[in-house]
Amino acid sequence: MTNNKELTKVDLIFEKVEAKQVLKKAFEMTSEEIIRQVLESGLKGRGGAGFPTGLKWKYTAAEKDPEKYIVCNADEGEPGTFKDREILDRVAYKVYGGMVIAASAIGAKKGIVYLRGEYRFLLPKLLLELEQFHKMIKEIGYDFRINYCLGSGAYICGEESALFESIQGERGEPRNKPPYPTSSGVFFKPTSINNVETLVTAMMIVHHGPETYNRLGTKDSRGSKVFSVSGDTPTPGIFELELGMTVQQFVNEFGDGDTKAVQVGGASGFCVPRKKFASTIIGFEGVPTGGSMKLFNSSRSMYNVLHNYLEFFEEESCGQCTPCRVGCQQLLKGVEKVKKGEMKSTYLNELIKLADTMKIASKCGLGQSVGNAFRSIVENFREEIIY
Amino acid sequence: MINLYINDQKVSVEPGTTVLAAAKELNITIPTLCNHPDLCVAGNCRVCVVEQEGARTLIASCATPVTEGMKIHTNTLKVRNARKHIVELLLSEHRSDCTKCYKNQKCELQSLANEFAFGDTIFLDLVPYHNYTIDRSSPSFMKDDSKCIRCQRCVRTCTELQHISAIAVANKGLHQKISSFHDRPMSHVVCTNCGQCVNRCPTGALVEKTYIDQVWDAIYDPEKHVVVQTAPAVRVALGEDLGYDPGERVTGKMVTALRQIGFDSVLDTDFSADLTIMEEGTELLTRLKKALADGDKKIRIPMFTSCSPGWIKFIEHKYPEFLPNLSTCKSPQQMFGALAKTYFAQKKKIDPSKIVSVSVMPCTAKKYEADRPEMRSSGYKDIDFVLTTRELAVMIKQAGIDFRNLESSNYDSIMGDSTGAAVIFGATGGVMEAALRTAYEIVTGREVPFKNLNITPVRGMEGVKEATLKIEGCLPDWKFLEGAELKVAIAHGLVNANKIMRNVRKGTSPYHFVEIMACPGGCIGGGGQPIPTSMDIRKKRIEAIYSEDEHMILRKSHENPDVIAIYKEFLGKPNSHAAHELLHTHYTERESY
Predict the structure, then answer these.
(1) Mean of all residue pLDDT scores within chain B
(2) Strand partners, B6
(3) Can you say whether the dihedral through the CA atoms of A277, A281, A282, A285 is positive or negative?
(4) Is A259 domain-assigned?
(5) Residues 6+ apart with CB under 8 A from A60
(6) Low-confidence residues of chain B: pLDDT under 50
(7) Nearest by Cα to A242 from A265, A259, A258, A226
(8) What ipTM goes with this model?
(9) A4 pLDDT tier (thresholds 50, 70, 90)
(10) Alpha carbon of A164 to those of A70, A149, A168, A192, B333: distances in Å?
């Protein structure tokens, strides 16, 4: 039995707050106090990977190097995710607010927003708001500056270390880890890199107190989350929901009555078939997501869905490590051959094993997560892949 | 010290050691591919993955530093399966025409396949999905993208060791490839043809352009007189491709093998190395005289050596404003070529049009150098074909020669004599040492003030070496040098050449004479030398070079009887008009990308 929550809409991310008041409150707190609050809130990274934000800040704060960075990952590239765009468009001041709070917690003097190249159209407005923000914190007497850096369209540059390389003007390729960003991030300096939504959430935690946030969600998935709902739904868009609901509850709210599968977490996430809707919780105890929720109804071919994802990965792998570069091509070409009847259907078993290897042997999260979509679609919709 | 367990065996290593290196301490072998001892860690190929207890994924042992209490397993089922998959994946994107491939049995991917991926192929052949091309534009090497497995050793070599970046990674995903500026052919980019990438490529994606068949054709042509010269660095490395350990000198056997192969005259580049010293040494002293005694502002100091064709192309591309600083001397190979079809032809009464001049070099850039349009001062192409050390080894095998049991023999006379000074051309600092042995004696009438003539300050593997030689007791002609401190520097590997050039450009270089070799360790580490290469191997070859020098009776270039003879009979004196016609050259400014 799952102890899931009801589907509850929340208004936290877009809630209007007096930024100056929140920041004044934050600046009165010690670094340890901010980190303690964020830790207590149970906030995990909202980009998808779900690393506890408080821990990330704690590790970065513990570094001795006087030059540290807070980087906002706004390279929202996961297929089906568009919540960061909305957040930046509507409440950029809260993103900046989250950054300055993080900066004061970790001891950074510089912030960088790495903005997805396709979001360039937002930039004039974002810079205007940034100017006001810089003025505001100067009034409070806090020394901190944010700069923008634009991506050029590569999905991989959303991977934190590839993002650093990109900022540094290098080819956007993930680094070997360790060292982790908290000790060697952008310009090889201690860096906390956080998603847009994470930073806003952190600001709201400081505003409302960690207990308020902690009361939302489940043990493993505290708080609320902004979802990007798309696909076969009568109500596509951005929705902020309390964590802990099942896919069934989600489908009841957003489905078109004929939902056969939901892709949770985008191309690198998991495909949940109808039979598992009721037993699957959206969150870290079930299927985690950076926000992408794509609904498919019975008119959709899951072969096409899979093919589309694999084409995406084949292109968007940076190409440096073998399992990802070659594995993605093999998965795509392999399902094509099976579909055409040029390879036996049992070849899918070999491909599943390959996906498992990619999961454990790839250099970064991209290659490691290709197997998620592949496995969950092939295993749940084998018929559709073969015939 | 950090304590960890690998396959349940305890080992203590320095912090910062990689898991791969720690395993080596225990004599546990972990297979690798993109890893190379001369290059930075990449962690790309993933062949070296191992299991760490408690870790979510496997870890790349080459890229992961040890941590206290770490428990590593290198041979679990999980590791074996992943490794097999990875090798299979590499094979699936690699055009496996192994039996026909130049790198057959010398290919690192092939060895891995042999160990981990024999039997039925699992995955689809991806080569037909790509539109691969073979770039044959360079006279020195070929780049076959269909055999490239993207380990990026070549890219790291070009960037880290050579500071050129003629090749770089382009595109992403399935389109990722190793490419040049705007995808231009390799003949039209900043590439110096040094061949260091060729030397480190684990597959047949980068190989030298071979001229073996053309040389055989010439040998079997009864009309032709085929002359071969062998560079100093070849004799201390050829053995490695014929079953000897690194550092084994095989000079005498090599000469016999060349005769058995059918070369009509077996001569020595060392002869023209000695000649180079006479020409270059004289040029240096003349420059110093004009600059220091006559105050001629047009004379450029420091003077740079010009033996290394990779270095020449580097300066032509990257620092063209300093071309006047280059010695105008041709390299020993090209001096030899110009004389083979003039002096040698006259002496031997052979029609020069019937002479085919072949050189065996540790170098791929020499193939390019031989093709340069200015290298035709004999009225013919001075050097017809350049073979690498590796190609000579192939020819020896093709000829069915039992190399190990060959008797030693000596080079032919006329352009076959050499001195120890010429031999050390093969090692970094060697040209400098040879030049100093002669120049000092010209100026002072005495030998250089070093025990056994070994000028140790210019020896060794440091990237940039500096030395100062105080000149005292000058002969009357050189009085202006009395008490002067001659400052010299030596760089090997173009990344080090670049360090010197940056200072020269800034105007902070104090040197009078600078020796630069494009390859790490000098010619013994050349791009045409046997594969593999590493610091240890290069050191052994250098030891062999110096031991060859010590075993020579004559150790100063100006004492070479063939050199004395050629000046008497043919050239007059160093830097004479005849010498300038045949032995000197000019340079060309090139684009910097």
Answers:
(1) 97
(2) B9, B72
(3) negative
(4) no
(5) A68, A106, A107, A108, A181, A182, A190, A191, A192
(6) none
(7) A226
(8) 0.95
(9) low
(10) 11, 10, 6, 11, 48
Examine the domain organization and report whether A197 and A306 are in the same domain.
no
Q: What is the dihedral of CA A133, A137, A138, A144, to 10 degrees?
A: -90
Cα–Cα distance between B436 and B277 in angstroms, integer?
A: 9
Number of domains in chain A: 2
Whose tokens are 């004696």? That residue is: B441
Map residue B484 onto helix, strand or coil: coil
Size of interface A-B (CB pairs under 8 A): 120
From chain B residues 116-175, the ones with a CB under 8 A of any chain A CB are: 122-124, 126, 129, 149-150, 152, 169, 171-175
State the pLDDT at residue A150: 97
For residue B170, the cross-strand partners are B177
CATH number for the domain formed by residue range(s) B2-75: 3.10.20.740
Our CA-based measurement puts residue B89 at a distance from the nearest CA of chain A, in whole angstroms, of 6
**Hey, which residues does B51 pair with through a beta bridge?**
B73
The pLDDT assigned to A67 comes to 97
What is the 3 state secondary structure string of B474-487? Answer: CCHHHHHHCCCEEE
Spatial distance between the Cα atoms of B22 and B39, rounded to a whole number of angstroms: 18
DSSP letter for B343, please: I
Residues of B in contact with A314 (CB under 8 A): 173-174
| B91-208: CATH topology | Alpha-Beta Plaits (3.30.70)
For the record, the structure tokens of A223 come out as 């708080």
In this prediction, residues A337-341 reach a mean pLDDT of: 98
**Tens-digit pLDDT profile for residues A96-151:** 999 999 999 999 999 999 999 999 999 999 999 999 999 999 999 998 999 999 99
Instruction: Choose among B78, B89, B176: nearest Cβ to A327.
Output: B89
Query: What is the reported pLDDT for A6?
Result: 79
Q: Is B371 exposed, middle or buried (0-12, 13-18, 19+ CB in 10 A)?
A: middle
Residue B350 is encoded by which pair of tokens? 């052979």
**For residue B102, what pLDDT is reported?**
96
Give the position of tokens 């309390």: A242
Q: Give the 3-state secondary structure of residue A28.
A: helix
| B369 in catalytic set | yes
Radius of gyration of chain A (CA): 21
Of A214, A232, A250, the residue that ends a domain is: A214
Cα of first residue to Cα of last residue in chain B, in angstroms, is 46
pLDDT-derived band at A48, boundaries 50, 70, 90? confident
Looking up tokens 């950029």 gives A92
- How high does pLDDT run on average in chain A? 96
Q: Are residues A306 and A180 in the same domain?
A: no
Q: How far apart are CA B559 and CA B563, in angstroms?
A: 8
Residue with structure tokens 């392999």? A334
Distance of CA B67 to the CA centre of its chain: 39
CB of B270 within 8 A of CB of B545? no
Residue A314 belongs to domain spanning: 302-386
Q: Which of B2, B40, B78, B86 to mutate to test the interface with A (most CBs of A within 10 A)?
A: B86
Span B142-161, pLDDT tens digits? 999 999 999 999 999 999 99
For residue B68, indicate whether it is catalytic: no
CB contact under 8 A, A363 and B65: no
Q: Residue A1: is its pLDDT beyond 80?
A: no
Q: Write the CATH number for A25.
A: 3.40.50.11540
Q: Do B174 and A363 touch (CB under 8 A)?
A: no
Chain A nearest C-alpha distance from B7 (Å):
19
User: What are B464's strand-pairing partners?
Assistant: B491
User: Residue A348: inside a domain, yes or no?
Assistant: yes
From residue B363, how far is each of B36, B209, B369, B394 by CA, in Å? Answer: 20, 11, 10, 16
Determine the topology of domain B210-593 in CATH.
Rossmann fold (3.40.50)
A3: confidence class by pLDDT, cuts 50, 70, 90: low
A200 and A307: one domain?
A: no
Q: What is the pLDDT of residue A337?
A: 98
- Examine the fold and report which residue of A151, A182, A214 is the final residue of a domain before the chain moves on: A214
